């Protein structure tokens, strides 16, 4: 196996690391799958909008008004969509609620919603809540968590003529398993159901082609691999052919056809803009754009090639160094079914994670009950960092450093 230094020397994306704020080069950051690093260009972009605010005051809205659509058109290039099928707005959960309710209303004669137990928990909360509000009486949560290899066939077995919507996460947050989007979307369509995907753990990390897969609806966040900043606005996708059939449950000013007529009668805007609601957070949206631009400049194919190489390298290191210490890898070895993070389990995962952060200058993240996720972000993660991180994890375990930490978990993990 080649070493990290040798692999870094052949990295065609290495120059992108210098375009991020990295204050401590000795800190190994492996949590970009939760919150990406700050692009240097973001500081300039936000400063520019703040200056516009200071000089132009309310007149700045002439430039800011269509920012949700302009950013959506750029994100469309990351997810295989058309420019008029994506808008940036609200949070992932709010967007999921809007699209789920709209889809269930369109599918009013079908009582069932299907998801799986590996979906992100808040996605399940939102979907169940939407189902209750729209009077859906059946909710199938397919058990796949302990056997993700069998996930596709188990989900397909639940799809039938009563199914209104199939809603899934593309890349699973715990294991990094990537669902077969084309096959499952096709399976939903065969029984007349709509397919709704959460792209939060895959957008910016691997190529996505929503239109090629025939996807109906999708949501995603921008603060992970897109590097849009903490709490950055999310996005939603509605297939062009569905847009005029669907209505958002949140009738807001920016989703009104002629907003500045100030009519009390609501008439949805044309196209995907009807899913906008309240006034967009312009400063936060300005912070999203530089991260999108970096991804488009690097190219998703090159990013995916490096991600595959780095997660494969990381898996080899886990097998060699960590498995003998009681760790177990739960991320798929099949690169076609793997996203951009590698997850390992250990009975002392929580305390090991705390020791890594407090003593070893390694920031992974913990997911209950016993998972440590090691996120690979190809724009700034190096092979040498991965190699060093595994060695520091080894030190924490072999030197029993984790034993000094409390088993009680903090509010944020």
UniProtKB/TrEMBL annotation:
GO terms for biological process: anthranilate metabolic process; L-kynurenine catabolic process; L-tryptophan catabolic process to kynurenine; NAD+ biosynthetic process; quinolinate biosynthetic process. It is an enzyme of class 3 (hydrolase). Pyridoxal 5'-phosphate binds at residues 92-93, 120-123, 198, 201, 223, 253, 279. Its cofactor is pyridoxal 5'-phosphate. Pathway: Cofactor biosynthesis; NAD(+) biosynthesis; quinolinate from L-kynurenine: step 2/3; Amino-acid degradation; L-kynurenine degradation; L-alanine and anthranilate from L-kynurenine: step 1/1. SUPFAM superfamilies: PLP-dependent transferases. It holds the Pfam family KYNU_C. InterPro entries: Kynureninase, PyrdxlP-dep_Trfase, PyrdxlP-dep_Trfase_major, PyrdxlP-dep_Trfase_small. Keywords: Hydrolase, Pyridine nucleotide biosynthesis, Pyridoxal phosphate. It catalyses: L-kynurenine + H2O = anthranilate + L-alanine + H(+); 3-hydroxy-L-kynurenine + H2O = 3-hydroxyanthranilate + L-alanine + H(+). Belongs to the kynureninase family. Homodimer. This is Kynureninase.
